[in-house]
Amino acid sequence: MAARPATRHQELVRQLESHNHSYYVLDAPTVSDAEYDKLYRELVAIEETHPDLRTPSSPTQRVGGAPREGFVKVTHASRMYSLDNAYSVEDLDEFDRRVREGLREQDVVQYVAEPKIDGGSLEVKYSDGLLARAATRGDGAIGEDVTQNVRTIRALPLTIADTRTMTLRGEVLMYREDLATVNEQRLAAGEEAFMNARNAASGSLRLLDSQQTAQRPLRVFLYDMVERHFKTHVDMLESIAKLGLPSHRRHRVCNSLDEVKAFIVEFDKVRHTLPYDTDGVVVKINHYDQRDRLGATTKFPRWAIAYKFAAERAATKVIDVSCDLGRTGAITPVAEMEPVLLGGTTVARASLHNYDYVAAKDVRVGDTVWIEKAGEVIPQVLEVIKEKRPKGAKAVVPPSECPVCGTPVKRIEGEAALRCTNTHCKGRVKAAIFYFTRRSAMDIDRLGWVLVEQLVDTGIVQDVADIFALPTKREELIALERMAAKSADNVIAAIDEARASRTFDRLITALGIPLVGTVAAKLIAERYGDLGTMLEREPADIAAELAEIHGIGPKIAESVSAFMDDKATRALLQKLLKMGVVAVQPKAAAPVEGPLTGSSFCVTGVLTQPREQVHASIRDAGGEVHDRVKKGTTYLVAGEKVGQSKLDSAKKHGTKIINEQDLAHLIQS
Ligand code: AMP
Ligand code: ZN
User: Fold this and answer.
1) CB of residue 82 inside a 6 A radius of ligand 1
2) Is the pTM here over 0.85, yes or no?
3) Is the CB of 114 under 6 A from ligand 1?
4) Ordered structural domains, the chain, with CATH
5) Whole-angstrom distance, CA of residue 504 vs CA of residue 526
6) Could you tell me the distance, in angstroms and rounded to a whole number, from the CA of residue 307 to the centre of ligand 1?
7) Catalytic positions
């Protein structure tokens, strides 16, 4: 191995992980996405030609592996306790009293107060400097091994500069803004939105397909360690932060309970400005020797308590229950309410999720209900205050027809949602267009909801492709109500800009393909380069081609293939092309030029070298590697004991059959 690629590889790994740290741990990005991608692609390219550099701790190995059948159980080295709760100042006084009772008179008690993060519990073990294992809490004694999933979380370094075994505990979470984007994409793809960041985080952690976990923008804060490598909690927190491990960095040492109380008051004032949800303050003993002397009850440690803030709720009256229609036709019931102040904003609408939820909570028009903010997404109805139910409160009847187009609704098996099946339904079209223009998608945010409604209602726009004809319809735009010439020109400029410069991965995201998040969208976009090229592929080939990509599981590949197999979808994509939406993806790793450039190879049978090595030498010489013979495969490199089916398919596709020596000749030519 020449020294240079290995050195460069090491340098790239270091840089990428350092950027991950700045972005996901310090919340202070140091490079643009484009620059990060460039480094990443260079790393991928080096590993293509030097597969031996592709070690498990390379950032390229964060994309997740093959789906599993179930999780392996993990017995925790020491119990993962839940925390005792305090809801009042008196509860805190009582906790302090018990602590002092359990310690010696001469002990100096120091507390550490820190945010209680609303996510899912997680245990992460590092040994010999490597992220070795991750597990959920489970019942406290036995959890589930979620290592593959946790490796996809970029906040967690795969390696640390400390070889001691460290069993760390913390919280896996999702930022509110990320949750909003994920939910937007889920609704667009016909999946149900997560109720809150906590559900999203713990649900994502327990997905059997880690490649789907990789699509979820998860983060981790670590706040406890099982081993006694340090004397105090604060030492531990500060030391792990120096190792690049993620922590909340919002703890404060308190020398008295009064200082703890002051922290709680202060924290309550600022917690809404944090990008993630918190629901309290955890108060812990700082010195480990004191913790060990206090011990635990069967359920809780005696050295910590969680002070919980009252959930932010408000009571208001349901005036009506209306329906929101998604782009896949999913019909979501929405409570229209008397406006009420909640978490600093006035709200008048709250999600009821689906009609099963409405029935389970027995929400009726006229009821007074408790509503709560789930992250910053949309508020949701929590429960009905039954004592306040007026006579004649009207039960909510699930619609039998689409409220927009009148088509009978369908309930898809195994789903809670009711759907309008009419693909031309104006309600669905509006939702599709609106989603298409969102910031995480094609980013044409000048096209707000009101304008989208007007455009669809007047018939000027009938599908997302029609958006790109608007620049030629300036007069019609200006003729719309409340549309000044200047705003029309702004809209037109934004559309032209999107047409010219949005990359292919954004277009893929904008189309809302089930299971395809932004990570998969990028991989797909890099595989095909632009919309036109992808459209030329057969849907069946697309499934096979995508399944070959590291980071795209069979489920995602199938979903894309089915999407591309749909007649209406194909017509729409053709129309987008005609409108000049070319959607080019910046080139992935530049292919190597060499004697095999332009040829593709499938390697099979028993060879004198490991197959990986043969693949590498093909790629080194500029050739492409296929994992099976298919249309367009130039050569089948056959070793000993080749199966008849391979030979048959080579014959079928006109693939030349050669042996290992022939390959060596080709490479040397
Ligand atoms: P609960 O589930 O409400 O009983 O609260 C206990 C859980 O709070 C623990 O299992 C942790 O997952 C979580 N938690 C969140 N933030 C912290 C923190 N800073 N320290 C300890 N536990 C925390
Ligand atoms: Zn409809």
Assistant:
1) yes
2) no
3) yes
4) 5-62 (1.10.287.610), 75-308 (3.30.470.30), 312-411 (2.40.50.140), 426-501 (1.10.150.20), 504-578 (1.10.150.20), 600-668 (3.40.50.10190)
5) 8
6) 10
7) 116
